[in-house]
Amino acid sequence: MIEVEVKAEINSFKEMETKLEKLGAKKSKKEIQEDIYFASPIVDFAETDEALRIRSTNNNTFITYKGPKLNDKAKTRKEVEMTIESAKKAKDIFEEIGFREVRSVKKNRQYYTYKNFEISLDDVEGLRPYMEIEIALEDNNNYSDAQDEIFKLFEKLGITDGFERTSYLELLENLNND
What percent of the chain has pLDDT over 90? Predict the structure, then answer.
C-alpha cells in the first residue's frame, strides 16, 4: 500500500473541528496511540528515511514498516502493517536480533472521514497541535493526484502553510537537538 500523507501545524483543535464539521467530515474514532520506534543494526533509518515501529492503541497493536519518501512534496511512501498480539513480545524479538528502541511517541488522535480522506487531529506529547490528511492507494501510479487532492482539502480548511514532511519522531528529536 502507498500512503500519501500531509501534515500541518494548526492553531487550535476546536477551530479545526468546527471547520471539519462545516465541511461535512464525520468523526469516526478517537484513540490514544503509543509508537515505539526502532533503529536497525544494519541500516541507518535516519539516512534512508525509513521507519520501523510498534504502535499500541486502545484496542490493537501493530508492527509498521514505512519505506523512504517517494517525492519531496508530501510524505508519500510504501507502508506495510500487520496486527500483532503483544507489543512486549515484538519489542523483545526486535531487541534480540539487534534492533534498538529509539524513542516513544505518544498522542491522542481524533479521526475524521471525508470522501476518500482520513483526517486526524493529533495532540502529540511535546508538540503543538497538528492535523494530518491522508489517502491510502493500492499502487503508486496516482500518488501525485492524491497529493494535489490533499493540498486542495487543506486549502478548503484555510491552511496554506505550516506543512511538515517530517515525522512526529523527527520533530521531537529536533526539539531535543536545539
Answer: 78
Can you give the pTM of this predicted structure? Answer: 0.90
pLDDT tens, residue by residue, 27-59: 999 999 999 999 999 999 999 999 999 999 998
Cβ-in-10-Å burial (0-12, 13-18, 19+) of 163 comes to middle
Q: Catalytic annotation on 168?
A: no
Cα gap 33→167, rounded to integer Å: 15
Residue of 37, 112, 130, 143 marked catalytic: 37
Domain ranges of the chain: 2-177
The DSSP code sequence of 46-62 is HHHT-EEEEEE-SS-EE
Q: How far apart are CA 147 and CA 35, in angstroms?
A: 25
Asked if 146 and 4 touch (Cβ cutoff 8 Å), the reply is yes
Phi-psi category of residue 47: left, alpha or beta, with phi > 0 → left and psi -120 to 50 → alpha: alpha
CATH fold label, 2-177? Hypothetical Protein Pfu-838710-001 (2.40.320)
